[in-house]
Amino acid sequence: MAEVTIKNLELSYDKKHDVLSDLSMKVKNGELVSILGPSGCGKTTTLRIIAGLLKPDHGNILVDNHDIGRTPVYKRDFGMVFQSYALFPHLTVFSNVAFGLKMRHLSRHEIQNKVKQVLEITNLTNLAKRFPSELSGGQQQRVSLARAIVVNPRVLLMDEPLSNLDAKLRVEMREDIRSIQQKLHITTIFVTHDQQECFAISDHVAVMNHGKFEQIGTPQDIYYHPQTLFVAHFVGYENFFKVEKQIENNEYQVNHQVIHTDFDHSYEPKYLTIRPNEIDLHQHKNNQMNEFNGKVVNFSFLGGSYRYMIQTDLGLLQVDQNDKDKFDVNDSVYVSLNSQLVIPLLK
Ligand SMILES: Nc1ncnc2c1ncn2[C@@H]1O[C@H](COP(=O)(O)OP(=O)(O)OP(=O)(O)O)[C@@H](O)[C@H]1O
């Protein structure tokens, strides 16, 4: 168990384009922090640097305030779980898990005890004598997790460990990972591009875009209080309004219209945003704040609700509405934006 600090990491593979720039974060003892971002943003590169498989051009990795920049991979005492299970095909589950302990020259008795304990935690006891080719993908990933934790690593690094599994198994495995991680209190850094997965298991989430962390916060912070256009878009916000100017304290001019936000913010927003399911669609004018008239351009069925495209003076809005009030193309409608759910974005 350990606290990991990443300080001002920078890396360029070709010495021309930065893949990582000025990357910093802290993972507290026993926490699970996810790095969330789209393909190619630099997640694996970051994890490889933390693991010691890659040297950064600048910056430091500290474990419990000690710089480990010169510590080789095998001395970092980190457990790693990757997308590919990388098990030894000629060894049984038991021997795969025991491998790291044998390398550390533990006694036969100690190895037996430790492996037995970890196979129980990872629910693999009944499969101990099987070979990897006799296991499902989920079971193989469980073995690679068991192999990583059996050596009591100070830190666990996981790179998209669930991406080869089907949807149902992914959900089961992520719950197992979280419960094992909490039981053992292992500091864990988990890389994923899947928002739901990372929200379900993380204490904190670092959202990455083009080699930079755009926002670091709890899953709730990121979901309800995104601070940038990129983060908001990544977590499902769809309607973005460029602020032309501030009119009053919480009133902003957008497309020559006025939008009011009651959302607490201490910065000057560049954009305002709201989720499609947080806009109310109605037939009659209610004379409310943030109410605009519009016309239905088209709609599609989402299952339980409809997604409407509404042309308004603010621009084209996406609005989700349950199927109790159904509207048709060319219907005249009103949209109301709940001022508490209009989020101001810094950039
Ligand atoms: N060995 C390498 N040499 C040159 N460029 C590389 C190398 N490895 C990765 N890159 C580039 O660095 C960038 C970041 O790659 P990285 O694998 O860290 O992204 P990622 O966020 O993990 O993506 P994914 O989710 O697709 O795995 C990408 O543009 C990639 O093409």
State the gist of this model.
Keywords: ATP-binding, Nucleotide-binding, Translocase, Transport. InterPro entries: AAA+_ATPase, ABC_SmlMolc_Importer, ABC_transporter-like_ATP-bd, ABC_transporter-like_CS, Mo/tungstate-bd_C_term_dom, P-loop_NTPase, Transp-assoc_OB_typ2. This protein is α+β, with helices and mostly antiparallel strands and 347 residues long.
What would you say this structure looks like, in words?
This protein has helices at residues 43-51, 73-76, 93-103, 108-121, 137-149, 167-184, 195-201, 219-224, 229-234; strands at residues 4-11, 20-27, 32-36, 58-63, 66-67, 78-81, 155-159, 187-192, 204-209, 212-217, 239-242, 245-248, 251-254, 257-260, 271-274, 279-282, 291-301, 305-312, 315-322, 332-337, 343-345. Helices cover 25% and strands 33% of the residues. The longest helix has 18 residues, at 167-184. The protein is built from nine helices and 21 strands. It is an alpha+beta fold and 347 residues long. Strand 9 and strand 10 form a beta hairpin. The chain is elongated and about 80 Å long. The mean pLDDT is 93. The chain has a six-stranded mixed β-sheet with strand order 6-7-8-3-9-10, sandwiched between helices. A five-stranded antiparallel β-sheet has the order 16-20-17-18-19, with no helix packed on it. A four-stranded antiparallel β-sheet has the order 2-1-4-5, covered by helices on one side. Adenosine-5'-triphosphate (ATP) is lined by residues 13, 19, 37, 39-45, 193.
Keywords summarizing the entry:
33% strand; transport; 25% helix; 6-stranded mixed sheet; alpha+beta; elongated; ABC_SmlMolc_Importer; 5-stranded antiparallel sheet; nucleotide-binding; binds adenosine-5'-triphosphate; 347 residues
